[in-house]
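## retry 2 of 3
previous attempt timed out at serialization; input unchanged, resubmitting
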Amino acid sequence: MNNRKSQLKRVIALALCLVMVIGAYTVRLADLQLVNGAAYREEAERKISRTYTQQASRGQILDRYGRPLVSNGLGFSITFDYFTWDRANQNEVILRLCSLMRADSVAYIDTLPITAAAPFEYTYASKSDEDYKNLEAFYADQAAQKNSAWPKEMPDAAGLMALLRKKYQVADTVSDNDARTILGIRYEMVLREFSAYNNVFTFATNVNVETVSKVSERGFQLPGVTIGVEDIRQYNTDSAAHVLGRVGVIYKDEYAELKEQGYPMNAIIGKDGLEKAYESYLRGKDGTKAVETNVAGDVTGETTLVEPQPGNNVVLTLDLDLQTVAEQSLASTIASIKKSAPGKKSKSGGDAEGGAAVVLDVKSGGILACASYPTYQLSTFSADYAALLANPLKPMVNRAISSAYPPGSTFKPVTAVAALESGTVTPKTIIRDEGVYRFYASSGYTPACWIWNEAHRTHGNINVSQALKYSCNYFFFEASRLMGIDTLNTYAKKLGLGQKTGVELAGERAGNLAGPESRQKSGGAKWMPGETLSAAIGQSEQQFTPIQMANYLATILNGGTRYQPHFLKRVVNYSYTDVVEEYQPVVLDKIDLKASTVEAVKEGMRGVVTDDGTAASIFRNYPIAIGGKTGSAQTIPSRSAHGVFLAFAPYDDPQIVVFVIVEHGGSGGNVAPVARDIFDAYFSKKAKDSPITPENTLIP
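## retry succeeded, writing output
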């Protein structure tokens, strides 16, 4: 009986417990659903809104006839989002992502100037490079931090890698090469101040769809890695790489200067070439958008807050056809010179290397072509960068504006102008070539005319035009001695030699005008009168850029107006409905040249390409009357002379000037075919305007 009572008590107690549990759950459910249901539902559906920059389309770059050289297309980008970035495991995430990219041979942004594999070495070409300047600033920041273990002086590449490994906690078990991969991206993050303030880090642009799919499939392994669609630069030509330039992400030092102009960190800006020079025209105004996500991180909506405004389009003076011909002819002519010369040790051009060609509008200074060899392709620049940097011919150097060369006999028209304008000689003055010039024989200096050195002959009695035709050194020795270096250089300066032209591209060299002034500046020995003879024929310390050489002849031919060489023709808005700016030629200087001086120079240069002139074999029976001047600029005894050629056309009404140089090309006659190819292309174009379309009605 008692046992039954005990069991009954236990059943009752268990039932009471069950009732109490059910009651508690009922109360809790009532609280969740009835009392606080709305609040909890709002929390579950709470949206997180963040603001992001909405990129504006960059303006296009077109040639003088409206043909697009650089335009925009849509492409995929891979970015890191700071708010979802796995900072605790970021080294592992970076390594996974970079390994995937390398497996697909897809480039990503890594500007740490250290080789990709051990043994580590620095890869910057010079301390003026942007990559070095960024590294220097980064290192200085680290070394200046309180209690920093970084030495004041930057160590070698291996030493810096050790410091970076410690700073970014790269485990000892990670290989050197994998460590370099991780550290390159961590370094890049610092340069671009990846943070809550600058919450988007662009890792790679213009990524192919196959790689994007793989990144998307592995999203669970790559937290914080996002895929987007953006405008990318499309290069519609393989020509003019040195002129057009590149775009790239903004860096910390650039941002310090540009933030006041409204640039966001991580913006895409012009890095070099005309992309940089015309940044203010090409850049649009970025917009902003609000992106909403729920607590799980899923995007629930996007709202445009400020519409982006596209940039303007830039129309150049450049003629794509001439540019392409100039580049192709430079390459083929150099190959031909090397092939025809009897061995690399020959001084006939067997050791020919790089070169440049410039085509200039005589009447405005507009640049129709500006070629540099060797060149590269903008579309594959990032992938090719290491090879370009290692190439001893330095293909990234724009030789047309950034390299200065001795002009050789192509300087003789300058000496002719100085002698004629100063009254030292007249067009009819006769000087007798005696082979060896003996005025300074007492001091042991007896230079000779080239024809004496080659055949023990002379040019006999000769005037200034004939001296240009036959490139008679003796005539210009005597003329320069009579007028002196000061008079010669007065006219050379008026023609723009030894000074920057002001062309829009960065990196222009001033060159050097030989004489007492430059000698004193360099701390060299006192200028001696006999040195004027060498300067007068384009040797001594004369060093000028190809664009200076083209511009000096254009100045003579148009009667003495020296224009600033330029690429800009016109700026139009993005929709091609309005002209934003029309370029007006800039006059840098003016020299009132006598008509007889101009005609004497033209006549001499006409003789060079006709009859028995020094370039007659190249232009014999050429259908257009032109003028030219060959030059062989001596360099070092063991190398061929530079081959130089300066020309204009047409003879009666000069429209264009062409200057060509091939390093160690042997002679001006060797390189003159480049000018001939350019003239062929220029004069073969009967109708220059492209068909009128809604996109280019403002272009011609």
